[in-house]
Amino acid sequence: DPLDDNMDNLVNSTLIYRPDKRLQLWRYVSYGLLHSGWIHLVFNTLVQVLVGLPLEMVHGSFRVGCLYIAGVIAGSLGTSVFDAEVYLVGASGGVYALLAAHLANVLINYNVMQFACLRLLAVAFIST
């Protein structure tokens, strides 16, 4: 079955975060480069574009990039502590960090931001 072959390839990748390979430190970041399928990839990319670009225009590429990588690392570290048997794949930790930063940005600048209410609703919708 091609689906089973894809899953085997993903699980055996040197980039995926695996609890039994915890000492391979690059896995705490590299898992964010892989995705479990097209829907996962498209959703994460869409959120990165819709939320990350406006943040980048205000705060700059370096700061937003650091935030994103910190979210990816926090996702793997948090999972390794609280659910030590889970394999990780995808950039969701970084995406959630961008969503949280966008939410904070909207709340702090609510009075001067165009369409602030719509932005809050969009973050709430995407986060659920």
From TrEMBL:
GO terms for cellular component: membrane. It comes from the Eukaryota. SUPFAM superfamilies: Rhomboid-like. Residues 24-125 form the Peptidase S54 rhomboid domain. One of its GO terms (molecular function) is serine-type endopeptidase activity. Keywords: Membrane, Transmembrane, Transmembrane helix. It is found in: Membrane. It is a multi-pass membrane protein. The chain crosses the membrane at residues 28-53, 65-82, 88-110. The keyword Transmembrane applies. Gene3D superfamilies: Rhomboid-like. PANTHER family: PROTEIN RHOMBOID-RELATED (PTHR45840:SF2), RHOMBOID-RELATED PROTEIN (PTHR45840). Belongs to the peptidase S54 family. This is Peptidase S54 rhomboid domain-containing protein. It comes from Meganyctiphanes norvegica. The lineage of its organism: Eukaryota, Metazoa, Ecdysozoa, Arthropoda, Crustacea.
